[in-house]
């Protein structure tokens, strides 16, 4: 069945909405450090890997071009959220408002965390989508599970190597930084592996519903061709 590659479907829009919500939620949760036994992680780990799973699904079903649109859309929505949060934090509170410290603890760090996350997100997400796309063509559409996991390893590694030094230097002790980065990559990859059966099912159902399974043969991988879908 032929499709118009210059349009997006309702299902693609639902994936896009969930993708943006995950990114915005992760930006807020990143401000909290949490511990699971001896492992220290950020709260963003609870939701951020979902964005990579959605990225995998979109790239697998609709191809790199629409994944590129999704990534830039997520970037724009996240940027808008952070800017409004910073603006609200900068405006003096009402006389009866007594939670300035708590609000500032979240949104006062948001610009710095957002700047780091914007760069890390773009690099990691595009690496993830590129690996997915190239491996799909190379393997003739086989081994989805393998490319989903490997693309996450490459993408999350790049993301963590950029994000944590930029966002949390001076907040997290330098000695803790390598273990934090490694634990994030390992845990996010394990997250992907644990939900892989669900991801495979969702991809299969989406392909059947959309009647499409795009192979990125001969496309331009430039990250700037945003509306070339």
TrEMBL record:
What keywords would UniProt list here? Cell membrane, Membrane, Transmembrane, Transmembrane helix, Transport
Record-linked NCBIfam families = queuosine precursor transporter
Q: What does this protein do?
A: Involved in the import of queuosine (Q) precursors, required for Q precursor salvage.
Membrane-spanning parts: 7-29, 41-62, 69-93, 113-132
The UniProt entry's sequence similarity note says: Belongs to the vitamin uptake transporter (VUT/ECF) (TC 2.A.88) family. Q precursor transporter subfamily.
The record's listing under InterPro entries reads: YhhQ
Pfam families, alphabetically? Vut_1
- PANTHER family from the xrefs? QUEUOSINE PRECURSOR TRANSPORTER-RELATED
List GO molecular-function terms, semicolon-separated. transmembrane transporter activity
What is this protein called in UniProt? Probable queuosine precursor transporter
Q: Where in the cell is it found?
A: Cell membrane
**Bilayer topology term:** Multi-pass membrane protein
Q: Which GO terms describe its cellular component?
A: plasma membrane
């Amino acid at each position: 069945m032929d499709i118009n590659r210059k349009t997006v479907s309702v299902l693609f829009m639902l994936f896009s909405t969930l993708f943006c919500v995950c990114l915005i939620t992760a930006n807020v949760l990143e401000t909290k450090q949490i511990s699971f036994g001896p492992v220290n992680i950020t709260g963003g780990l609870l939701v951020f890997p979902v964005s990579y799973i959605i990225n995998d699904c979109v790239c697998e079903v609709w191809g790199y071009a629409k994944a590129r649109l999704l990534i830039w859309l997520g970037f724009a929505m996240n940027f808008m959220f952070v800017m409004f949060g910073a603006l609200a934090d900068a405006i003096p509170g009402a006389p009866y408002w007594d939670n300035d410290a708590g609000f500032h603890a979240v949104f006062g760090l948001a610009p710095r965390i957002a700047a780091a996350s914007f760069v890390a997100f773009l690099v990691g997400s595009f690496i993830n989508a590129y690996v997915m796309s190239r491996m799909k063509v190379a393997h003739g559409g086989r081994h989805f599970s393998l490319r989903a996991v490997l693309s996450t390893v490459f993408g999350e590694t790049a993301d963590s190597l950029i994000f944590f030094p930029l966002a949390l230097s001076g907040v997290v002790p330098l000695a803790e930084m390598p273990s934090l980065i490694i634990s994030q990559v390992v845990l996010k990859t394990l997250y992907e592996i644990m939900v892989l059966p669900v991801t495979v099912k969702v991809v299969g159902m989406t392909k059947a519903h959309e009647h499409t399974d795009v192979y990125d043969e001969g496309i331009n991988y430039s990250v700037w061709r945003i509306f070339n879908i």
